[in-house]
Amino acid sequence: MSAPTPEPAEPTEPAAAVVDSMESEPSDSARASLEALRSEIAKAVVGQDPAVTGLVVALLCRGHVLLEGVPGVAKTLLVRALAASLELDTKRVQFTPDLMPSDVTGSLVYDARTAEFSFQPGPVFTNLLIADEINRTPPKTQSSLLEAMEERQVTVDGKPKALPEPFLVAATQNPVEYEGTYPLPEAQLDRFLLKLTVPLPSRQDEIDVLTRHAEGFNPRDLQAAGVGPVAGPAHLEAAREAVAKTTVSPEIAGYVVDICRATRESPSLTLGVSPRGATALLSTARAWAWLTGRDYVIPDDVKALALPTLRHRIHLRPEAEMEGVTPDSVITSVLAHVPVPR
């Protein structure tokens, strides 16, 4: 883009230029810190760059992430490495069939000395909650995260208790076809900003994994692997402020809406993307634009984040599913047919 024609100089312009420079420095520092997360996580996880990028985008958008993949592809290790790379409080919950909602949110405990009930906070009161194998627990316990994820609070005895800021749920799940899983309901899936698929590694990546283990890598000891904090709350807040200033033209907003409306008209779907999904796609596209060094959104940003942002917000017709249609193929088809703004 060509630079705008400068206006006649005013006495206050030098001061304004200094202010602009000061504002850009925190933004650049925040971008560098968040980009450093990729190399830091790579010390523990081989490959999976798209998943790492998705986690960073979710942090910028104040969203939550669902990672899906078969057992053994380092889903939990990926989230643990992210937690170790951030100066944030982190807790982990292993979701099991016998887990109760109070085991996640906390409960009222009777104190015999005072003859009163006091609230004992659960692991949800943290900055980064690792919800491991979330679809291994029944819907009753899954729903315990609904209020926390949407309202960022937990109501106990009729009184809301705010969660720390920032707050992010990074949940892992096995494909629903696996034994002993409880599919997440649409209402809860819609609370996740992104659904990231964690595929099996390539041959070379798998060789690298085995080589690391042969050299003594211990996935349970990330500190020994050299993984340490490279970003903190200050970097994250500066980055979020910069993302909020990323420009969205009316044409881009219309493009996002047209994509989401096209899913609602797809003959392969019983449920298309809701307005909340359209808002999510716009948010993730802005974050991606800022991460790539731009202060404005282009159609390629929308396309880049369409699959992870929308794939869990649509529902296939049974006959389409039997024919081998997938959510990703529907969204890809929509992207191919919706006119791109010039």
UniProtKB/TrEMBL annotation:
Ordered alphabetically, the record's keywords are: ATP-binding, Nucleotide-binding
Molecular function GO terms recorded: ATP binding; ATP hydrolysis activity
Which Gene3D superfamilies does this entry report, sorted A to Z? Magnesium chelatase subunit I, C-Terminal domain (1.10.8.80), P-loop containing nucleotide triphosphate hydrolases (3.40.50.300)
According to the entry, every stretch annotated as the AAA+ ATPase domain falls at 61-202
Region described as Disordered = 1-30
Name of a matching Pfam family = AAA_3
> Compositional bias (Pro residues) spans?
1-11
Which superkingdom is the protein from? Answer: Bacteria
Return the similarity comment.
Answer: Belongs to the MoxR family.
Q: Any idea what this protein is called?
A: AAA family ATPase
